[in-house]
Design brief:
The chain is of the alpha+beta class and about 150 residues long. It has a single domain, classed as Aminopeptidase, CATH 3.40.630. Helices cover about 30% and strands about 25% of the residues. The chain has a 5-stranded mixed sheet, sandwiched between helices. Strand 3 (about 70-80) and strand 4 (about 85-95) form a beta hairpin.
């Protein structure tokens, strides 16, 4: 594991959206899916929607201004738990910044946002076959042999 770079995680701004859209395209390509979301729809969801929190990670030691990763969390009612709940729908960190703790920082910030929104918990939705996800979840001790639901 590489050294953890200094990173700042915050809610996205309009200036972050072009790079987040580019990362969404890369994430979809990993799964062999076309990217259906357009930049205007992304802006509507991420900046105007009451149920979405788009978090971006910036490396503070880099001269680049664009984000190196993002997490999209949706807030809604969990019918099983009977409470408001956060669901991280997408989590992505660009190469070469993977395996440096940036995804963990994004998830920690998502938990904080979920708590601020009054959520009782948070679920992370991930495709175990996407780049990095399987390694990250196995490193946390999760068995990926069969699909399952997990809540933190």
């Amino acid at each position: 594991m590489s050294a953890t770079p200094p990173v700042t995680v915050r809610l996205a701004t309009p200036a972050d959206l072009p790079e987040v859209h580019r990362m969404l395209i890369a994430l979809a390509a990993q799964s062999g899916l076309p990217t259906a979301i357009t930049p205007p729809v992304l802006a509507r969801i991420a900046l105007e929607g009451r149920a979405a929190r788009l978090l971006v990670a910036h490396r503070t030691d880099s001269p680049q201004r664009h984000p190196v990763g993002f997490a999209l969390m949706l807030v809604g009612r969990n019918m099983v738990a009977g409470a408001d709940w956060g669901v991280v729908e997408q989590l992505y960190v660009q190469e070469p910044d993977r395996r440096r703790g940036i995804a963990r920082a994004l998830l920690a910030a998502a938990r904080e946002e979920a708590a601020k929104a009054g959520c009782q918990g948070m679920t992370v939705s991930s495709r175990p076959d996407s780049d990095g996800s399987a390694l990250a979840w196995r490193a946390r001790g999760m068995d990926l042999a069969a699909p399952r639901f997990a809540a933190e």
